């Protein structure tokens, strides 16, 4: 779980930098330039450390460059705020692959309730699309405080809640099936 949060923070680092600098300076150009520089620094740092760079790292860098460039040209922060939405849509699309979640589950769950894990995978994809759409709608308002609240509290809270519900439901189903098998 710690690795998931580290990767999420890494993927959102440029947006967090942008938001922090923008809120401190109220300067879109400076905030965007620092965010783009931060994204490049992140890739360079990973290369120097010999860390593998995944597809999402390069996609994140490309999004920062493209959306940051549009933000610089228009002086409108909403383009940078759209980056996490696009990332959520991409992740949701990846999660539409049948059974993607099975490799992340403990063997007892995979052996006992694989059909429920597949359903949970689709539910996660739907959640990513809903969060992305909500984030895009909030970004369109241009209200940075509302957007930051949505990103950190609403989107983050929804993922934590979904994880807890999934854990509880799968545990309950596995427990019931094991009891039924023991009685039979």
UniProtKB/TrEMBL annotation:
Domain of life: Bacteria
Pfam families listed in its UniProt record: IspA (PF04279)
Keywords for this protein: Cell membrane, Membrane, Transmembrane, Transmembrane helix
TM annotation in the entry: 12-41, 53-73, 116-141, 147-174
Record has Thylakoid as a keyword: no
Entry-linked PANTHER family: INNER MEMBRANE-SPANNING PROTEIN YCIB, INTRACELLULAR SEPTATION PROTEIN A-RELATED
Name under which the protein is recorded: Intracellular septation protein
Species this protein is from: Bradyrhizobium yuanmingense
